[in-house]
Write a structure and sequence with these properties.
One of its GO terms (molecular function) is ATP binding. It catalyses: dCMP + ATP = dCDP + ADP; CMP + ATP = CDP + ADP. Belongs to the cytidylate kinase family. Type 1 subfamily. Keywords: ATP-binding, Cytoplasm, Kinase, Nucleotide-binding, Transferase. This is Cytidylate kinase. The structure is a single chain. By secondary structure, this protein is α/β, with parallel strands linked by helices. It has 10 helices and 5 strands. A 5-stranded parallel beta sheet has the order 2-3-1-4-5, sandwiched between helices. The protein is globular. The mean pLDDT is 96. Bound molecules: cytidine-5'-monophosphate. The site of cytidine-5'-monophosphate has 15 residues, from helix 2, helix 5 and helix 9.
Length: 202
């Protein structure tokens, strides 16, 4: 059985938490597509051309997700993500993942609009920039990294602007997506709403 759940939305809105929980619940595979852009961003920070890095990406580039979650890599990811050749180079892998037998959940910015426009379920997970900055701050501090709220908020806003304003595959809710605003929702409530949305389409 093929069944694709597309989850899009801005940084730290809860896509990853919801995506993992939905995948666990239904026994689907899960792909955090942001990691692909982060891996390209990390290679660019090491001096490589982003277009070349995207074409040369290997599973080893994804082997250390914690390193890829560093704030400078996040900013680099959103810079390489505006380059059409980079997005093209990552497209086939994401589509192939979505077509896995047994079901797949992909989260990112353009899954419901570009990568999997025919996904059975589309969710757009969002929250206010302030709430997302607070969540990202807690996550960074929980990992023992130093961070300040104002800096994290500025980073979130800069990334939101680049992701929504770019010409190729901008972040936008698909017309047929269900929007979940998690600003005042617990993770449990958001996960329950997402599972119910998938269940209703199965
Ligand atoms: O989701 P995450 O914060 O890890 O994504 C890092 C960056 O990668 C985003 O800010 C965005 O610019 C880019 N991205 C994208 N399309 C996706 C996933 C991520 O452009 N499907």
């Amino acid at each position: 059985m093929r069944f694709t759940v597309a989850i899009d939305g801005p940084a730290a809105a809860g896509k990853g938490t919801i995506g993992r929980a939905v995948a666990d619940h239904f026994g689907f595979a899960h792909l955090d597509t942001g990691l692909l852009y982060r891996a390209v961003g990390a290679r660019m920070l090491r001096g490589e051309r982003a277009e070349d890095a995207a074409l040369a990406l290997t599973p080893e580039d994804l082997a250390d997700p914690d390193a890829l979650r560093a704030p400078d890599v996040a900013q680099a990811a959103s810079k390489v993500a505006v380059i059409p050749e980079v997005r093209d180079a990552l497209l086939a892998f994401q589509r192939a993942f979505a077509h896995r037998i047994g079901g797949a959940v992909l989260d990112g910015r353009d899954i419901g609009t570009v990568i999997c426009p025919r996904a059975e379920v589309k969710l757009f997970v969002t929250a206010s920039a302030e709430v997302r900055a607070k969540r990202r701050l807690d996550e960074l501090m929980g990992r023992g990294l130093e961070a300040e709220y104002d800096t994290v908020l500025a980073d979130v806003r800069a990334r939101d602007a680049r992701d929504t304003e770019r010409a190729t595959a901008p972040m936008i809710a698909a017309d047929d997506a269900l929007t979940l605003d998690t600003s005042e929702m617990s993770a449990e409530a958001a996960i329950a709403a997402a599972i119910a949305a998938v269940q209703s389409r199965k």
